Amino acid sequence: MMNTAVDGSEHLQSSALDGALADLLNLALLANHARWNIIGPRFLTMRRVLEEVADFARSSADSVAERAIMLGHAPDGRAPSIAQRSSLPIIEPGGLRDVVAIAAFDAILDAVVDRVHAAMEAFETDLVTLHLFTGILGMIEKYAWMLRAQSNA
User: Fold this and answer.
1) Distance (Å, rounded) from C-alpha 56 to C-alpha 52?
2) For residues 89 and 111, is the Cβ–Cβ distance under 8 A?
3) For the segment 52-87, what is each residue's pLDDT rounded down to a tens digit?
4) Rounded to 5, what percent of the chain is helix, strand, coil?
5) What is the mean pLDDT of the chain?
6) For residues 12 and 4, is the Cβ–Cβ distance under 8 A?
7) What is the largest CA-CA distance in the chain?
8) Residue 9 in contact with residue 3, Cβ under 8 Å?
9) Considering Cα of 103, then 105, then 109, then 111, what sign does the dihedral take?
């Protein structure tokens, strides 16, 4: 059952789960889109990192959805729901220069970090869910560092 404090934290927690799920699913889609369309001298390295980001985001979304179910909240991973709830910046269609991808994913991963921080605040007394989001945050920050390092290559 969702944590139901007198202050109405159940709605806040449901919203945090929905938002994190939407951003993680969208992150997986954006990383795949960029991976398929990346061009430039950092092609190979960027392709590998973006593939890792996509796989991690998909796996993390699955973990968030499973946790939501455990807490009594029905996750919604349908495309219209992702489009409505995601806070991530978009990437244009077509070829994507490696330097443009680095800048785009800097902003995208920052948005995911913000969303995960909000989820962590919503679940500050639920140590299991807090642990889940802490692990996700650590990896997102790692991928942001890996991509930023490419801008200096």
Assistant:
1) 6
2) yes
3) 999 999 999 999 999 999 999 999 999 999 999 999
4) 75, 5, 25
5) 93
6) no
7) 55
8) yes
9) positive
Under the banding of pLDDT at 50, 70 and 90, the label for residue 141 is very high
Please state, in angstroms and rounded to a whole number, the distance separating the CA atoms of residues 34 and 105.
Answer: 9
Q: What are the structural domains, with CATH classification, of the chain?
A: 9-150 (1.20.1260.10)
Residue with tokens 């950092």: 42
For the segment 35-57, the average pLDDT, to the nearest whole number, is: 96
The length of the chain, given as a count of residues: 153
Hunting for tokens 């909000």 — which residue is that? 118
Give the distance from CA 20 to its chain's centroid: 7
